[in-house]
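The pair is listed for reference:
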Amino acid sequence: MELKPGMSALVTGGASGIGKALCIAFAQKGLFVTVVDFSEENGREVAALVQKENKKFHRDLRVQSSIFVKCDVSNADNLAAAFEKHVQMYGGLDICINCAGIANKTLVYDDTSDGARTWRHAVNVNLVAVIDGTRIASQIMRSQKKPGVIINIGSAAGLYPMFFDPIYSATKGGVVMFTRSLVPLKRHGVRVNVLCPEFVQTDMVEQMSRKIIDSTGGYLKMEDIINGAFELIQDESKAGACLWITKRRGMEYWPTPEERRKYMVNPNKSKRMLTKNIYPSIQTPESFQKIVVHTLSHNFRNATRLERVQLRLPVEPHSALVKIIYAGVNASDVNFSSGRYFSGNTKEVASRLPFDAGFEGVGIVASVGDSVNHIKVGTPVALMTFGSYAEFTQVPAKHLLPVPRPDPEVVAMLTSGLTASIGLEKAGQMASGQVVLVTAAAGGTGQFAVQLAKLAGNKVVATCGGESKAELLASLGVDRVINYRNESVKDVLKKEFPRGVDIIYESVGGEMFDLCLNALAVHGHLIVIGMISQYQGEDGWKPKNYTGLCEKILAKSQTVAGFFLVQYAHLWQDHLDKLFDLYASGKLKVSLDPKKFLGVASVPDAVEYLHSGKSVGKVVVCIDPSYGQVVAKL
């Protein structure tokens, strides 16, 4: 929902704290605001401030641009009357903020009263009034048959226990689960979301121990809360969403995709399944082109050839035929063409020849087998199975990942993005407040690693070679860019990070691996996702001995973890959804190398370009340039 002058909002608890800040923020957008609070003096002051801001948007109004309604939200009649006054004044309701809340000074298990003025009252204000306010607001919005948004103000205390006020924690937890259960209201045009900030400097929070607040990183800025609320209002995809805001990690949605999988009845069904078919019908040709590995060699051009083969129809019962629009290029393409990813001796691997090349691609489903009912023709999908360097490919339908659009940016999110997202979480055990080093950071996967580490609230260090790459990394928010062509990576790490680096996302290998291991902090995690410096050479990839590795990691309780994406297939869809949501909301940038590679025949050129060290961002091949142009216009 786009906030426009003339819309109206009702805010309970609007006389102070978060409620007051939201009232003024709405006024700065030209919205009419009803301030609902028990404090008449503070409430009228806020209403006056709103009117002052509104003069910038509205002149010669016949009605006041803001009114104050004194209300005890725990009194059902008072609350209903407040909503009624708002509708009478402004003719409807676009946004409702249920923000009223109070803390409990006495621990409930030490309370000897009947609770009428203590914990029972807190339950009524913090939870019952939110439920009632949501009920009334949703009924008004549905009756006017216009879209509406309700934001319930929860708390981080609703996501984890708050031992010094169990009642506050219980009520805010109730607000969270109540809100998350209201997703069905979206069908009626009403979206209800919950905002869960940690500590904000308000009168209520200032009564708490400063030690507790400091242990979480200190107070959040009120600006962060406003931005979070506006995101929940303006993002049409958010319904039943819980946005958690902390000083340590910034803004993130809770629960995580992995947590959702634990309770979902059908965890493998993606929300992307419902993508509408807006793509032109695909005419299946009699034949198509693809890249085939015909001899084992780390020289991709020598190992492969372009072949034209007959298209086999009908599609097998449990499979789908996909028209590839874009395919991603990876450093490990040369390992695949040399047979390094197959088990067995050289003779056994050679017996597999010829085999199709390419790890990843996006495209459109052109046809499905008779037993496939969860994917329809015309659905945009991503795939990470062998054979994406082709105009068409037939794969088991269960391996397809529905995506919003078959764009090159989505290709970058596949092997490159998923390796970063899952690798940092699983192998790196990434939290917040850490120092994270990413090597070859301006490449396909490095660009994701630096941004995800930054979004998690970490200090990010990145290595690269070249000014254009350094500029890209600086634009992505990297705290310290080390251009190894101008300065020594070893010297910088030793001087500026004497205590070591907590997490290292390493893809270069060789001397860089040795350097990283020596720079790893106590309890640090070094994630090995590849070793591109060792892939090329006269004899291809040769294993290297790392003398003293065990002794080093033992002495500092360190972890050196290998990460191979294919072993985490059960997490692909959830993490892909997360990456696309971050990209769609503008929180994640996707850098594509500007050099164009068009058609299947250009694949060997693209692979060699990637290994030249000149690429900046993800290298992508447009398999069908003519269809790619059509898709781009949709």
